[in-house]
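TICKET #2291
ISSUE: user wants both folds in one file
ATTACHMENT 1:
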Amino acid sequence: MEMQGSKQLAITQQQAWDALNDPEVLKLCIPGCDSIEATGEGAYALVNAIKVGPVSAKFKGSLQLADVQAPSSYTIHFDGSGGAAGFGKGSAQVTLTPNEGGCELGYAVNATVGGKIAQVGQRLIDGVARSMAESFFKRFEEEMQRRHPAAAAEAPAVEPATGGVPAWVWILVAIAAILGVAWALR
């Protein structure tokens, strides 16, 4: 599965970078996230509850960050297993580009799923991915407005740009979409 797109954020590039590096922010924003913990330099462990059609499972996953160019980009390599429900693995390239309205978060995800979760069909997986990503972005925007009310009030009204089903995003993104792993930047 390949997904790409972008999202306009009403915060600065540095604020977005800092938030995406904060496991507590990610835990609040990733739908179904039970835990996300740093396990080493640029490495994280995540536990996330996922339901795709009739298949429900707790996925245990890991994230490894690479090609980190703070505060503008990184690559996330991820894999996770939900036991008999299946697995997911892949990578996501994430960019943060400053602009007049704050910054734009861009992403491109390449992910593979297998096991029972893959048997429910691509259309259902894509629908769940879209719903989880929308939920992540809504929660993330609400949390950023709570943490940075001045940035949200000062940002001009900008329509978000979308170019497909967000992943991982973390995540963001097949991460958020399939494994619910969102984004960890560092």
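ATTACHMENT 2:
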Amino acid sequence: MQTRQITDHEVSARVPVIEARDLRKTFESINAVDGVQFAVQKGEVFGFLGPNGAGKTTTMRMIECVSPRTSGTLLVFGNDPDIAPAKIKQQIGVVPQETNLDPDFTCFGNLVTYARYFDIPPAEAKKRAADLLAFVQLEEKRDVLIDKLSGGMKRRLILARALVNNPSLLILDEPTIGLDPQARHLIWERLKILQAQGNTIVLTTHYLDEAARLCDRLVIMDNGKILVEGTPADLVQRYVGSEIVEVEKSDRVLACLADMKVSYEIAGDMVQIATESARDIARALLDNCQPGKVITRPATLEDVFLKLTGRTLRE
């Protein structure tokens, strides 16, 4: 029987870009990240979801070599961030949640100046800056100061800045926060292009439609722990089902659902029923319960998120 030698390239392709085992970060008595385990494979978009304070950004900061871990194992490109941070930082690009562009420079100046941190020669830095402004559709704003840009333009420029060093891993913390739909869709398109070019992308987002659209796999975190992991579609099917029936809450509707032995959740003034047969449930409600309003819709990742993390507002 013939055997084939496995190449170094094939071996490296199987090694996760990021690997965490029993990863912990403690601030005094608070377990911000509490023993999480995950792996991000080369070329995928991997998402971290969770309410405020869940541990998402803290996890990202450890990956970025900004915040040292308390305990556990964390490897990025096979390197320990505590031992080889410079080696890791050369290969990553970061889009932070806050807008931290230098107001003293133009769009072009921000990119060229940032390139100096990576010892990119001036001529190459200028070429990359011009190419990246075109990539994020900011060519016409090349010589405009930062204060003159809209919020969407600033986020696009931050994405361009994160790509100055041609990173293999792009880390984005709320990349489209506060943007209008047009700007969000433009950034989504650019991220998909980057993935098609072989980049690995890790992101946090509070926009569940964004996670469902972009992520190959994701985790949902709460209180420093990972609750679930999987593809968006698999998580929806596993924890909610395919369809949702929403009906206005009333004593009569609740009594009917009890008679029908149907499980439900109360969301404000509405009752939600996860089901595989929305039409049958809706018909039974209309025939027997005199509801004020009945809506049927596909189940979404937001339904999973709220089911697992609750509906209580987090500050």
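RESOLUTION: both attachments delivered.
EXTRA DETAIL ON ATTACHMENT 2: Confidence is low (pLDDT under 50) at residues 1-11.
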